[in-house]
């Protein structure tokens, strides 16, 4: 009979600890508010094998859209060229002078913060794991799946199609935020005809994250390494920072720029276009300074029932350019993404041919 490795955690004990944490309905913020000095082991993650890059040689591009409507085609193509280069190399870029007032972005972040800083008993009424609700507040959507939990709380708002938004489910303190998020997308005009024809723009939801200060940030992460499952993501982050992109096996900081929006390619866009657009893995560090606020808006139709298959665009296929991923519905891809959890691997790998 073999011996039991005393260093291995007891799985039942770990699951019970996660269940107990979930049942408090107060999230990570509840731990911090309780005066926590050492973080529970369920948040301890393995040391990352990648080093941090020197940001003087690796910088996430900041692209100025002030002349995007210029009638001079060379100016327009110059901006498009910068976006294309960013999508093919880093998969991430920031945009400024996008037409959305700074006051709108600041109020959006303030609204998210107001929700989390309400009395815990008020927030508990919204704590749920029912994915069919249009407003979902919890901590770690994949609470029983990953090796370690992330140091953050989240609420999700489903904003499109229109019938997914149920005003009666939205907390009063957040009611204006949902309209501001939709306004961000309308102002950007992020609906190229090809994506629109593919129904990529029919689904829209936002993840509003709250990263409390962490007493032992070296032991955990705010969000584990992952790539985004949807088509395109637009992110608003505050001044604290912590978002990093994995490039050439090194972590690159996305330094906060006042008023900027961060845009990145998602898995389904990479899988649909046979071009070198990259859905890049990224993470968020935990920090002793907090709270950090971010709002990630996704083009995806995962909550919208459809049998439409997504995969390589047929017109782009050739003998020299064969398909790299098998077709899937958005709902099936999202279901796999959720079941897998943020375990440090890309869901796209599962669909490689």
TrEMBL record:
Database matches in Pfam families: 2OG-FeII_Oxy, DIOX_N
UniProt keyword annotations, A-Z: Iron, Metal-binding, Oxidoreductase
Cofactor(s) the protein requires to work: Fe cation
Residue ranges constituting the Fe2OG dioxygenase domain according to the UniProt record: 202-302
UniProt xrefs under InterPro entries: DIOX_N (IPR026992), IPNS-like_FE2OG_OXY (IPR044861), IPNS-like_sf (IPR027443), Oxoglu/Fe-dep_dioxygenase_dom (IPR005123)
Gene3D superfamilies assigned to the protein according to its UniProt record, in alphabetical order: B-lactam Antibiotic, Isopenicillin N Synthase, Chain
PANTHER family: OXIDOREDUCTASE, 2OG-FE II OXYGENASE FAMILY PROTEIN, OXYGENASE FAMILY OXIDOREDUCTASE, PUTATIVE-RELATED
Protein name: 1-aminocyclopropane-1-carboxylate oxidase-like protein
């Amino acid at each position: 009979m073999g011996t039991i490795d005393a260093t291995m955690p007891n799985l039942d004990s770990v699951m019970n600890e996660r269940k107990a944490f979930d049942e408090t309905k107060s999230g990570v913020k509840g731990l911090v508010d309780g005066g926590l000095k050492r973080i529970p082991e369920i948040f301890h993650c393995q040391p990352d094998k990648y080093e941090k890059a020197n940001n003087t040689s690796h910088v996430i591009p900041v692209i100025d859209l002030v002349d995007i409507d210029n009638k001079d085609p060379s100016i327009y193509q110059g901006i498009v060229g910068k976006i294309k280069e960013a999508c093919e190399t880093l998969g991430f870029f920031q945009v400024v002078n996008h037409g959305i007032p700074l006051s709108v972005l600041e109020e959006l972040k303030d609204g998210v913060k107001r929700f989390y800083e309400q009395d815990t008993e008020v927030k508990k009424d919204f704590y749920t794991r029912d994915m069919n609700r249009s407003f979902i507040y919890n901590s770690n959507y994949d609470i029983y799946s990953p090796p370690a939990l992330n140091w953050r709380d989240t609420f999700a708002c489903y904003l499109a199609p229109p019938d997914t938004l149920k005003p009666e489910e939205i907390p009063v303190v957040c009611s204006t935020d949902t309209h501001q998020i939709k306004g961000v997308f309308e102002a950007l005009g992020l609906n190229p005809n090809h994506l629109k024809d593919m129904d990529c723009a029919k689904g829209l939801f936002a993840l509003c994250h709250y990263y409390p200060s962490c007493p032992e940030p070296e032991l955990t992460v705010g969000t584990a390494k992952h790539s985004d499952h949807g088509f395109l993501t637009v992110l608003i982050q505050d001044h604290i920072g912590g978002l990093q992109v994995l490039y050439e096996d090194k972590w690159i900081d996305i330094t906060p720029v006042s008023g900027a929006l961060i845009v990145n390619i998602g898995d389904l866009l990479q899988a649909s276009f046979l071009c070198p657009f990259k859905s890049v893995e990224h993470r968020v560090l935990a920090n002793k300074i907090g709270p950090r606020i971010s709002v990630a808006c996704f083009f995806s139709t995962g909550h919208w029932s459809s049998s439409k298959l997504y995969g390589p665009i047929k017109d782009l296929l050739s003998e020299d350019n064969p398909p790299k991923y098998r077709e899937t519905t958005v709902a099936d891809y999202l279901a796999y993404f959720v079941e897998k959890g943020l375990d440090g691997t890309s869901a796209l790998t599962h669909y490689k041919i």
